[in-house]
Write a structure and sequence with these properties.
mainly beta, four-stranded antiparallel beta sheet
């Protein structure tokens, strides 16, 4: 059974940084594209970043140049390094595949104060 466990969120001031982690009990994780999503209060859950099995990455325009997605296949883990955080980045962050096909984890709350 697939399980996604996100961690690393917290409260940070604008301009600060956080590193999120997602441990994915996904079979053949190393060949799977993985992504980070976020959902702000009252808004839909949006894609933030994707990383392919080969390490190619893609980002939402709103986070380009500030966020970096990476992965460690030996640990079945995908990371999201978030720098220069803005209050608009406040949301619950989740990981999943590119088609959101896995059961969602509990997410990790990121709150950026101005």
């Amino acid at each position: 059974q697939v399980q996604l466990v996100e961690s690393g969120g917290g409260l940070v001031q604008a301009g600060g940084s956080l590193r999120l982690s997602c441990v994915a009990s996904v079979t053949y994780f190393s060949v799977k594209t993985m992504g980070w999503y976020r959902q702000a209060p009252g808004k839909q859950r949006d894609l933030v970043a994707l990383i392919t099995s080969g390490g190619s990455t893609n980002y939402a325009d709103s986070v380009k140049g500030r966020f970096t997605i990476s992965r460690d296949n030996a640990k079945n883990t995908v990371y999201l390094q978030m720098n220069s955080l803005e209050p608009e980045d406040t949301a619950v962050y989740y990981c999943n595949g590119p088609y959101r096909g896995y059961p969602w984890g509990q997410g990790t709350q990121v709150t950026v104060s101005s």
